[in-house]
Design brief:
Blueprint (H helix, E strand, L loop, with lengths): L11 H23 L14 H20 L16 H23 L2 E7 L2 E7 L5 E7 L18 E8 L12 E5 L6 E4 L7 E3 L9 E9 L2 E2 L7 E3 L1 E12 L2 E13 L2 E5 L2 E4 L6 E9 L4 E5 L7 E4 L7 E5 L5 E5 L5 E7 L9 E7 L4 E7 L8 E4 L3 E7 L25 E4 L1 E5 L3 E5 L7 E4 L2 E2 L6 E10 L11 E8 L13 E7 L2 E7 L5 E8 L12 E11 L3
């Protein structure tokens, strides 16, 4: 797309030819960018001066109107009757320059837009003809008791909104917002010397950590996102960091974010540590708003199963999805969908996928966990994931009936068997596990009939109340849920279909479980005294227990 200038001194026939060529070119670009089929009014030889002016004015008005309908506003100069020839030439030149500039921005695959010294956007054309505004921020982060702290030097991906055109301002009103957060959509770790504090690009690199390298390129050329804009076909951001707390260090080398018209792709490069990282989120995604339903595919196949992403009756909930290789998060109210796919299910150390939904923060956050509490983390590479932003169907899925009997404990704990510990109904309408000095877990279960190999969702709500001494108000909730294989409550022989997983935090927990036998035993557990900081007198209240087959 090359503009031909209408220069002073051109003969009338030359002016006509140049204007005609520009209109043909502009209409072709307009139709290509917005999938239109408009045709220019030709400025034919032999037309009178006023006919040429009228045809040119009609063309300009049509192009400006088409752009404005798609949210792109220009500065049209009208070619009114009675204007002197040189004024007409000058106004036409201004219009051509303006339109070529507008369409250059609208036709670019990607456009970098500076915002502040710590914020910029990448506007990228979408496969459905609109544009996504990918937001990046730096030098801000968490400062709560669960954050390592320190600096937050590297650019991190913070969210995505959709606009009509690449040429629009990303700070304007979007068509829709999929993600808008100050958190990180890359990685987070719990270092063993951090006292259960997270470390990472949002949580902090620590006093001894640093950004060791960072490059930002568009089509291979470096750009400064804080002082200039650039257009091209592909943006690539790469950084390397060292995250350190005491004697524990995690090194991230060559973490890459790639953006083009096909979407956004993440590659953590190589992550290594000699420390034991019980929690290592190598890959995260955030969906802002009430994303209350998801789909997942398991490592055993490509079937997509639907599952609720709930907070239960609280403001916080976590849903564990086995080793899902694809997870989508959907708002049933309007169908907005964030889909995350990866190819890391076969990688050593891939532990599980989980989603935390938090109504206080108004988001659902997806985690790929490579944590290992049994040994040093070692080195991980070859894990990539992509995020796409889609328009799905609205409306919630109807799920199968609850297989659990008396999971709400409205009047009693009938239909449940206590295999060990102190368990009783409480007038609050819960099953209460009370820690005694017996040294054994509190375990309650019931038998249900299942289909071997079919996925189910097992869920419960739990409130843990520690009494101390020195234990009151502790963050960690040791209440657990499992799908056992033995009527006596054993989680050893035979092996459970789903080993117990602690709640960690009061609220709702759900687990995608796959039965290994036709009779399975959903279990509610409070670990023995001394384990997971539980003490005599601590209580763990379970409520709203459910288990149902997932919808395919």
């Amino acid at each position: 797309m090359t503009q031909q200038n209408i220069n002073t001194g051109l003969f009338p026939e030359q002016l006509r030819r140049v204007a005609q060529d520009n209109f043909v070119d502009l209409y072709a670009q307009l139709n290509s960018v917005y999938a239109l089929s408009l045709q220019p009014r030709n400025l034919n030889a032999g037309m009178s001066s006023d006919q040429l002016r009228a045809a040119a004015q009609a063309n300009f008005s049509e192009i400006y109107a088409a752009l404005q309908a798609r949210g792109v506003n220009g500065s049209q100069q009208h070619l009114n009757a009675g204007l002197a020839v040189d004024r007409l030439r000058s106004f036409a030149q201004l219009n051509f320059t303006d339109l070529y500039t507008l369409l250059a921005g609208a036709s670019a695959a990607v456009r970098v837009v500076a915002d502040t010294t710590n914020s910029f956007y990448v506007m990228a054309r979408s496969l459905r003809g609109t544009a996504f505004a990918y937001h990046f921020i730096r030098n801000s982060g968490g400062n709560t008791a669960t954050d390592l702290g320190g600096s937050w030097p590297n650019w991190r991906y913070a969210g995505c909104a959709e606009f009509l055109s690449v040429s629009l301002a990303p700070t304007g009103t979007p068509l829709r917002t999929f993600s808008n957060d100050t958190g990180a959509q890359d990685y987070a770790f719990v270092l063993p010397t951090s006292s259960v504090k997270f470390a990472g690009s949002y949580h902090g690199v620590g006093a001894g950590g640093s950004l060791t390298a960072e490059t930002l390129t568009i089509d291979g050329q470096a750009f400064d996102p804080t002082s200039s804009a650039a257009v091209g076909s592909q943006v690539i951001l790469t950084h390397s960091v060292s995250i350190t707390d005491g004697s524990s260090t995690v090194t991230v080398t060559g973490f890459t974010v790639t953006i083009d018209a096909s979407g956004i792709v993440f590659n953590p490069g190589t992550i290594s540590s000699s420390a034991v990282l019980s929690t290592a989120f190598v890959g995260m995604a955030i969906a802002t708003g009430s994303f209350d339903e998801g789909t997942l595919t398991l490592t055993s196949g490509t079937t997509e199963y639907k599952t609720p992403i709930s907070t239960g009756t609280t403001t916080y909930g976590r849903t564990y999805m086995q080793k899902a290789n694809m997870v989508s998060l959907r708002k049933t109210s309007d169908g907005l969908t964030v889909r995350v796919s990866h190819g890391g299910t076969a990688l050593a150390g891939y532990r599980r996928t989980s989603v935390v939904r938090d109504t206080v923060l108004n988001r659902a956050k997806l985690y790929f966990d490579f944590g290992n509490s049994g040994g040093a983390f070692g080195s991980l590479s070859g894990f990539t994931w992509s995020q796409s932003y889609e328009l799905g169907a609205a409306g919630a899925t109807s799920f199968a009936a609850n297989l659990i009997t008396n999971g709400a404990f409205a009047a009693n704990i009938n239909n449940w068997t206590t295999t060990s510990g102190s368990v009783a109904w409480n007038a609050a309408g819960v099953m209460r596990h009370s820690r005694s000095a017996t040294g054994t877990d509190d375990r309650s279960l019931q038998a249900i009939t299942t289909v071997v190999g079919a996925p189910y969702l097992l869920a419960a709500e739990n409130t843990y109340t520690p009494v101390g001494p020195g234990n009151a108000g502790t963050y960690v909730n040791p209440g657990s849920i499992a799908l056992g294989s033995a009527s006596n409550g054993s989680l050893i022989t035979p092996a459970p279909a789903y080993a117990k997983v602690a709640f960690d935090q009061n609220g709702y927990n759900a687990h995608v479980v796959i039965p290994t036998q036709t009779t399975q035993y959903p279990m509610l557990i409070l670990e023995a005294q001394g384990a997971a900081n539980t003490l005599v007198g601590d209580t763990s209240d379970f409520d709203n227990v459910s288990m149902f087959a997932l919808a395919a």
